[in-house]
Amino acid sequence: MTTTKWSIDPTHSEIGFKVKHMMFTNVSGKFEKFEATAETEDGFFTNTNFEFTAETNSITTGNVDRDKHLLSADFFDVENYPEIRFKSTSYSKISESNYTLKGDLTLRGITKPVRLDAEFHGTANDPWGNKKAGFGLTGKINRKDWGLNWNSALEAGGVLVGEEIKLNIELQFIKA
């Protein structure tokens, strides 16, 4: 069987997340520098291996002070852990365009399994003749599983930062 390699089109992809702030609103953020590859055995994304890395110092939430705090040892500790990595372990079809993507996520030197819901958006040729493929990924992780433990108690009860991180990822690949 022929292996087809795909690389990320970063101008048409986004690695985003949301986390509760003060227990009642969400703060959104994203990573601006990342790489991803996919390898298919059949060209149809039914049997696919995915790999992903993001530069932790590329995080942005739209607030300079918050971003500086996220880069510190309280959270991502970018001096010691410059990358987040994901390597798939399985990609299983659920329905026509819905899949389950499982893999190992490494963050702050800790590797744990994660499960993401994947929607395959299909393939098409762009106006320049390049074959493209699109995916939407969603999932949830608990930040404390990777040692991101910092928090602050609120006077009215609760905490400043939620533990659950909602992932919202849009990927567009280009056939190599």
UniProtKB/TrEMBL annotation:
Domain Lipid/polyisoprenoid-binding YceI-like: 5-174
InterPro entries, alphabetized: Lipid/polyisoprenoid-bd_YceI, TTHA0802/YceI-like_sf
A Pfam family assignment: YceI
The name this protein goes by in its record: Polyisoprenoid-binding protein YceI
